[in-house]
Give the backbone structure.
Amino acid sequence: MATSHLPSNSMALLFISFFVLMFCMENAGAETRHYTFNILYHNVTRLCGTRTILSVNRRFPGPRLVAREGDRVIVKVVNHIANNVSIHWHGIRQLTTGWSDGPSYVTQCPIQTNQTYIYNFTITGQRGTLLWHAHISWLRATIYGPIIILPRRNESYPFQKPHKEVTIMFGEWFNVDPEAIISQALQTGGGPNVSDAYTINGLPGLLYNCSFKDTYKLKVKLGKTYLLRLINAALNDELFFAIANHTLTVVEGDAIYTKPFETDKLLITPGQTTNVLLKTKPEFPNASFLMAARPYFTGQGTFDNSTTVGILEYEHPLGHKTHSKNLTLIRPSLPPINATSFVANFTMKFRSLASVKFPANVPKNVDKKFFFTVGLGTSPCPQNTTCQGPNNSSKFAASINNVSFTLPSVAILQAYYYGKSNGVYTRDFPAQPLSPFNYTGTPPNNTNVINGTRTVVLAFNTSVEVVLQDTSILGAESHPLHLHGFNFFVVGKGFGNFDPNKDPAKFNHVDPMERNTVGVPSGGWLAIRFFADNPGVWLMHCHLDVHTSWGLKMAWIVLDGPGPNQKLKPPPSDLPQC
């Protein structure tokens, strides 16, 4: 029987066509999405008073940034205010596009008054809920908004398709300018004044003065499933959240799908996102239900001990107008303020899907191990002055491995890229504490921190393990740590001091939760692992802004890899100058 043979060049063309087709299918439907963010002054009335805030496009919270996995996003940011500003796309990997990450003096100089900068990045391998916010001083108090990354076209969620999707952003409201608050605190060395209210989608809710009309309402239909995209954009507080008489199913955290689990209350730290499914009641309940958020706090200072609420209202199935005043308003129960055991149990429930489609690529072997203490400390008062910090003789500070990070006056990424690190940063961040002590026991006599702009340098694709250990210096406290440029796997956690001989045996290498922000337990430790597969300079810091201002941050420098897609792209021509 005769057989036909294609000429070799035809075979080559066939193979090329096949790979082009596969590439096109992989990138099918990818779009370029353009946004313009004008940073403007904006008068807002809350809690019986009006003040001028800073906002994007005079919206508070700011506009939604919506894209699909695989899309390119171009955001033109125009600064119309007197403050310098920069925007961070929190949780976006920024693969090889570190110039668009946003933290001022780390990956860019801030955008000055009347200047413009274009953030340009592609959303690679990510889908879910994230957030964007200002990343300089305390400007993110009012400059923030949601990032919603939809799956690729023709791809579905790994859970029931919801009837409707709703974004719920938690924030903090200050009756005075937050910049004045942190400026005064850094000058006096004392703790900053706390916020005056928490907010749901910018509204404090009816438990606060003059706020009955400033209450967020979510109207729902009977017997439907709603996807709630919860985002904590609060400046300095972890928050508990619950909806009265309703169970929520957690399906995602930090834009990573989870094994679904049910809960009637949850914790969300600043910088974290949590997607939950809300199944509404099948019959009209003759009641409305408060959804409430209030702080989780274990530290020793003052905090805003108030509660923000919204109202979940059911539409009457027969279209009857039911006046909310005639309905019972049911309040949820939330954990106590310092409910550390609830927090430990709740956070342990997060597990990656670890499926074929959504694998958990946990580093099994570790190239570099680090042990970082995180906590508060002190700085001495300048001579001939009095301070309002600990014992009225020092200033509050915060550190990682006792190094309090000092932001330089130019961008670290620029200095690194052009080989001009002298006087900007050093590469000697300690891999473990310089002076070990009983971290969760009696604090050492000397609590002073060292100041410096120290970094860790990693070769491309190094597998990294970091144990983050809380300290009891000036009180044990939960610290939500955020790593820019990466997701990491939370392989272990515990209370007390980490035991390097016993604790690693209990690590989860199978389906640990993958996140970009995680709470280091109060009086405990947490172990994370990640691959350093993203060249650039990447900040890691506490997402309580007061601690960031006090120096609880450090930076990783990841070197270029050998491949063409493993190198930091050159800086854009409009990169702001300092």
In short: The chain has five helices and 33 strands. The longest strand covers residues 32-46. The CA atoms of residues 386 and 393 lie 6 Å apart.
